[in-house]
Amino acid sequence: MLSVQLKRFLHHAPPPPYSLPFSTTTSPPPKHHSPLTTAIISLLTHHRSKSRWSHLRSLLTTTSSSTPLTPGHFSLITRKLKSNPHLALSFFHFTLQNSSLCSHNLRSYATIIHILSRARLKAHAQEIIRAGLRSQILFNNDEDAFAEQTGLSRLEQDCEGHRGPRYHLLKEVRFFEVLVKSYRECDSAPFVFDLLIKSCLDLKKIDGSIEIVKMLRSKGISPSISTCNALISEVSRCKGSFVGYGVFKEVFGLESCELGKKMRRGFRVRPNVHSFNELMVGFYRNGEAEMVEEIWSEMERFGCVANGFSYGVLMAVFCEGGRLSEAERLWEEMRVKGIMPDVVAYNTVIGGFCKAGEVEKAEGLFTEMGLSGIESSCVTFEHLIEGYCRIGDVNSAILVYKDMRRRGLCEQKRVFEALKIMRSAMRDVSFHPSGKSYELLINGLCKDGKMEEALKLQSEMVGKGFDPNSTIYGAFIEGYVKLGNEEMAAMLRKEMPVAQKQQQEDNVTD
């Protein structure tokens, strides 16, 4: 059953903040069946699936009209198929594949979306919503006329900072209006509006999403909590965390103004831990450490219990600010409360310890991580490698790197980043890597096809008194073969035994 607020909203079409010319793109579907629609309904419901579509095509091609099925006809037929939503969806796809036999507008799209929504075929409904929002045919393309009718500027700025016609923003609002107008006749489900908002977010139509939520909120109707959280997340990412915070307060009716108090009384959805997490991670991403702590305090005042992700974000703030004792306090608090840290939380604290040069503590957490059954990630190893390099222990960093490669956790780009960290550390004259360390690094560079970098490292290795052995020759040969340079590989194969013989003679002389 629909909520009282939703019933009222649908009975009285929501007054938009500006006049929208629906008559140009939508018209009420015919109330009575024509002989053609009656024949089509009978054909679809009684013929076998293999033959119905060829019969339908034959029926429509024999009519005198250039486009036999109007959007109104499609809506009427589709509503008659609402007890068989999969058939209704197949009929919709048939009309798209045979566009000369059927035309569509917003109303006909709204009808099939409602039918699929009431059947809880959400993925299919969202697919059609996204296709509709992308379509230029379903909307009036005369932007100047539209701007003149609405009194709005033709230009808006999207989340990527690009300026474009504001008309495109209004497409979402117009789609919403048509869904409202056709809601009752299709006996739809309330979450159809959530599907529209989420589809807008998928397409980065942020302003349209906000406008739709405002229109729902003005009638005391709340989108689902997951939709509200998705909106806050996208707004924070595209428009900045402070704008996201403003949307958070508006959608949950938490404004301090009188209007906010009024809206709060009629608003039933309360923010949950994920709502606050979206705000925290948004502020963290924008470097607003103080606001992360402020949101944490607000979450506590609201009586919302933090989860592992919440702790992870706040610990990241503390670690990056060099406040390790506070991060450790939070870590212990998690244990007391029985909250299991995830890989992100472990990586955060491990990274904090490594940055502070406390690699022993980081290694302890790394060991604990494995014992707890939590798989370490590429980031875990990168933190440890950087930590060991920071304290001058390149050989231990090499061992961590070797373990990372053995486990095959990271893509090649991330492996090379780890190599660069160690390579940078080895340039420090105070570091004294072993021959084995050089061997491992050169082998990694050759496997990644970074032959020029490997040659530089090999030259440095010789300069520090380490002669290339058969393993290093083998790494270069394999690397050149992989790159298709057989000439260099052949030359090294000839050079290798000569070099090894020379090394043996030098050793005897010594």
TrEMBL record:
PPR repeats lie at residues 272-306, 307-341, 342-376, 377-411, 434-468. InterPro entries: PPR_rpt, TPR-like_helical_dom_sf. GO terms for molecular function: mRNA binding. It holds the Pfam family PPR_1. Belongs to the PPR family. P subfamily. Keywords: Repeat. This is Pentatricopeptide repeat-containing protein At2g15980 isoform X2. It comes from Populus euphratica (Euphrates poplar). The gene is LOC105134754.
